[in-house]
Amino acid sequence: MADELVLTLRRQRLIQDAGGHNTWERHTIERRLPPDRAAIIICDMWDAHWSRGAAERVAAMVPRMNAVLHAARDRGVRIIHAPSETMSFYAGHPARERILSVPPVEPPPDLPHEEPPLPVDTSDHGSDTAASDPTEVPRRVWSRQHPALDIDAQHDVISDDGRQIYSYLRAQGIEQVLIMGVHTNMCILNRSFAIKQMVRWGVDIALVRDLTDAMYNPARPPYVDHWAGVGLVIAYIEKFWCPTVSSEQLIGHP
User: What mean pLDDT is predicted for residues 190-203?
Assistant: First the structure.
């Protein structure tokens, strides 16, 4: 069907090679569903960040992300803006009021799930630019979502509360959630609306792997460049938590 949303979900599974050694193998499955049965969560794409490197990469992602949101919204995909810790900025906004009016639904008990250690060391908080600027210390400097990400007042919703978002997903009959934004090894995994909690609630969720960034400093283990570090976190998610997709599946071009 022309109006179907077609997603190629990528995961990694542990197999034995011909020599009997354990190894990870990528595999994909195709999922088709009506666009109005899918939702996108935009995680913590704030207007500012204490790490200059992190802020620069968010700004670089914004144009592509906004184009993807427009394309998905035009097809009927639901858009959930989740800039954590900024809900006071959106008080009275129609998109905020819309989700506040959704009757609460009690999530199911958490499914058990292992938590293997992350593949990158963020004991220094993960900024790759902090060494050159002593004022770069973790602190809240954000006040809203990045202003270049458009919020449709007639259709979108705004929330940073996992139970509120779960209730909205159930009310809309959502069958597939996609999550994009920052940071892959922190908020994308750990927020109350993000990957770990959705997996534990039995919600089908997938990471949009080319519209995300990790907090990782190449001066820390495993001593690879920044984007290699992001790739390691994406692989970790594919192995242990949920599939990933690429944004071209939503917008139609690489």
Answer: 98
